[in-house]
Amino acid sequence: MEKENLKRVSLLRIILILFISIIFLILSQLISISTKDLLIKIGVGEWFGLILSGILYALITFIATKFYIKKYVKLDLFKDRITSVKIKAIWVIFAIAMPVIVVFVMMQFPGKLVKLNNLSKDGINNIIAGIFFIGIGAGFAEEFVFRGLIFSAFEAKWNKYIAIFIPSIVFGMIHLIGSDYNLVNAVQIIVSGSLVGIFFSVVAYVSDSVWNSAIIHSVWNIFMIGGLINIANKSDNMSVYNYILDTKSFLITGGEFGIEASVISIFAYIIAILLACLTYRFKAKNI
């Protein structure tokens, strides 16, 4: 079916697309982790397995998403923002500036900076996994699915506003899977996850390419949960640097989820959304 005919597709079909998209993420993650485990069993260095698993995570998701769109959904891949690699300098600046500013602001709160003198082998592997699997792998894979396939399907069925907000709320909610958060933490995670999802969606829409949002997503993951620096009210022996906050306020620490759900990060998401929207308005005026 052509894109213009997607509006006639039932809501059930759209839900199916959403469900299959998330299945892609789960399966590609399982395959990449299983490959890593197999390589380690046959004697390949763990560091190599971790690097390869991250690359496979993104690559398998990309191939599966591209195949599914072309074979079954049949949306225009160019307009789906998946195959069009348009990396703009402004979004690379966003990618670096956002986590740096959030980390800087967080370190203005009372606390203590501690550097681990002897990072363990597990700690080194944790950083490698943070860069390649959590950063590059998850960052790109999630963008291919959420801001590529799901966003485009919702946009074609309804409009860009539905496509930006609804999948972003789903994106926020999936961060609850597999964890037992209390109600306050759960709400905090959904709000923060939805807002950062909205930001990624706006970037993908404005730049007409998921590659820009993927870069931002990947760099954010590397900075925030990649093992280079841990900002919390307790130390983590898997991180090179620890900034141990004096406060235990869930608003500042982000609760059980971490600083990605803190009010500082939430404020950064909102500012980033507004700046991305202003970029779109400026671009529209100069066309």
Quick structural overview:
Helix content is 68%, strand content 5%.
Task: Give the SSE layout.
Blueprint (H helix, E strand, L loop, with lengths): L10 H31 L4 H28 L15 H18 L4 E5 L5 H37 L2 H14 L9 H25 L2 H16 L3 E4 L8 E5 L4 H4 L9 H23 L2
Helix pairs in contact: 1-2, 1-4, 2-4, 3-7, 3-9, 4-5, 4-6, 4-7, 5-6, 6-7, 6-9
Explained architecture:
The protein is mainly alpha-helical and 287 residues long. It has nine helices and three strands; from the N terminus they run αααβααααββαα. The chain is globular.
Name its key features.
9 helices, 3 strands, 68% helix, mainly alpha, globular, 287 residues
Q: Helical element count?
A: 9
Overall body shape: globular
The percent of residues in helical segments reads 55-70%
Structural class, judged by helices and strands? mainly alpha
From the N-terminal CA to the C-terminal CA, the straight-line distance is 31 Å
In the sheet with the most strands, the strands line up as 1-3-2
Spatial extent as radius of gyration:
19 Å
What is the N-to-C order of secondary-structure elements (H for helix, E for strand)? HHHEHHHHEEHH
* Count of extended strands: 3
Q: List low-pLDDT spans.
A: none
